[in-house]
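#struct-pred
JK: can someone run the complex with flavin-adenine dinucleotide? inputs below
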Amino acid sequence: MQIVANPEMKDRTTLKMGGRAQLELRIDQEIDWEKIPGWMEQEGLNPLVIGHGSNLLVQDGNLPLLLIKDCRQRLVEVEELDENRVKALAATGCRLPVFLSWLQRKGISGLEGLVGIPGCLGGAIAMNAGSFGREIGNMIKRVQIWTPEHGLEWVDKDAIQLGNREFDPGIKGSSWIITRVELELFFRDKREILKTMKDNYRRKKTTQPVTSNTCGCVFKNPDPEMSAGYLLDSCGLKGHVCGGVAFSELHANFMINIGNGKSAEAFELISLARERVYNRFHMDLQTEVKVVQGQYSRDI
Ligand SMILES: Cc1cc2nc3c(=O)[nH]c(=O)nc-3n(C[C@H](O)[C@H](O)[C@H](O)COP(=O)(O)OP(=O)(O)OC[C@H]3O[C@@H](n4cnc5c(N)ncnc54)[C@H](O)[C@@H]3O)c2cc1C
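RT: done, structure tokens with the ligand placed:
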């Protein structure tokens, strides 16, 4: 396990923003999980598990955080279930784009809708990430979860509650980390998979600022028929700038760091958007991006 002191959050988030945590524990092998409780007790810091940081908005300044990051990239196994179905077992530190390319080369289908999402597998599951009508949660057979109380244990899909960018493995207690996932996927022609992925990426690129410093969608869609982007756009917020932070010109629900953005500016933009949408539509927007302000809570 590697231990990094004073890790910079701007280097660990796609929004390129945020202050300094106190410590980062980087998991390289299974045995490292056993060392985590000791560090948690010893340091007395607030644990925050991070993936690729592509859905995080982190406060500036010194933060009493203990970052935990699964760095195991290449742990993928597959098992053929029948002529159509295949089981894929992967470590959740694996980057989603790397995993999707790997599946495509093996002729394994089911996650093509997730193309262009820059997270790690663990973050994608924790956020029940989805696009083009598919969510990763629908493909899960079971997940391996680590808790300080029980170590590693498998949780079957029946015990997992999934929702709109929500994943709840039904674990009681404080911290849990998804460490592995078993997905049920399908065989499909490699060229067809590649074509679907390319088409999806092309569509995504024309409607979302995928190459900017962004944290993805700031707000959840209030319901499947009403997009937060539409509400923000209707309130004149597309392209709205606050210091070094702005809502994208391409998609009003994407927040961008346009240069030296500060978290205070991002929070101001969020408050303004909520106020305008409430005043015009009487709707309370809920954040999709995970806001980290020292004392991290999954419920923010
Ligand atoms: C350009 C861009 C496009 C995007 N497009 C989409 C999209 O189309 N659809 C979509 O759903 N999202 C989208 N996102 C948002 C984001 O990429 C996804 O939510 C992604 O799955 C987050 O993964 P991550 O590894 O970056 O998680 P992080 O941002 O690091 O963490 C997000 C949350 O997951 C938790 N978490 C991370 N890893 C674990 C773990 N192993 N165990 C338990 N909890 C964990 C963190 O504590 C945090 O609460 C986009 C983001 C960007 C920047």
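RT: quick notes.
The chain has a mean pLDDT of 93.
Helices lie at 36-43, 96-106, 121-126, 190-207, 228-234, 263-281.
JK: thanks, will look after standup
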